[in-house]
Amino acid sequence: MSNSTPSFKTIIVTKLDNPAGLKVGQIQFNRPDVLNALNIELMGELLRALKGFDKDNEVGCVIITGNAKAFAAGADIKEMATQSAIDMHIRDQFAVWDKIRKIKKPVIAATSGFVLGGGCELSMACDMIVAAESTKFGQPEIKIGIIPGAGGTQRLTRAIGKARAMEMILTGRMYTAREMFDAGLISRVVDDEVFLEEAQALAREIASMPPIALQMAKDAILKAFDTTIEGGLEYERKAFYLLFASDDMKEGMNAFIEKRKPLWKGK
Question: Is the dihedral of CA 32, 38, 40, 44 positive or negative?
Fold first, then answer.
């Protein structure tokens, strides 16, 4: 069962029930005629929906998905083809992407079909990727005279290493879900018919966990990309200690001792 949320033009936003815990927020791209190309309007609506779920105490985890043919086949080239360097600087369209990374709740990309260019970069901005077997990943920007601009050169390199990222970005070739799983980019590969259901099951499992601990765990993991191992360990330790001030920590430990299911408050 799902609950509809306020309507958008380029995305479909729903809340999925979760008997095991908090609900799951789901955002589906809805530009099928252009393979869910990511234009400025869509990215603005995506950010607005993500921020809404981030503030919604009923929601514990979020899924971003497309359709069978495409998660997103890249940025909307028609919006950029006539722009100058100054136009792009003033537009600053990638500022939205920086804000997506600051979403506190876990975000899962459920992918199928084409995940190219900006679509690939967006999937990497999520915390996990559940990919259908049919998924094709790629950064083909080089083929139209540019390079990835929404984090592709940075996130892809961190995820799969310099050599693989060089080959993927410099050739513009597409790679299968299995190849990307083996490279370490995605968390699981599943049959095409069930990719969204698998992502929803994972999201429901995550949303059954204590909300504050989830957010701090996500934050600490992301910190590993921004600092040294010493700095990361110090950050992790402080987050660990801080959770001892939460009601959920007390509830979780007492429930473990008393051999019962914990009841999380998100406090």
Answer: positive
Q: Return the domain boundaries, the chain.
A: 2-207, 211-258
Residue 159 among the catalytic residues: no
Q: Which CATH number fits domain 211-258: 3.40.50.460, 4.10.520.10, 1.25.40.10, 1.10.12.10?
A: 1.10.12.10
Is 118 a catalytic site residue? Answer: yes
- CATH number for the domain running over 2-207: 3.90.226.10
Catalytic residue among 141, 177, 198, 213: 141
The span from the CA of 120 to the CA of 157, in Å, is 13
Please give the average pLDDT of every successive group of 10 residues along the chain, which has 267 residues: 69 96 97 93 96 97 97 78 74 81 96 96 96 97 90 93 96 97 96 97 97 95 90 92 93 93 92
The strand pair at 174-176 and 136-138 is best described as antiparallel
75 carries an active-site annotation:
yes
What pTM was computed for the model? 0.92
149 among known catalytic residues? no
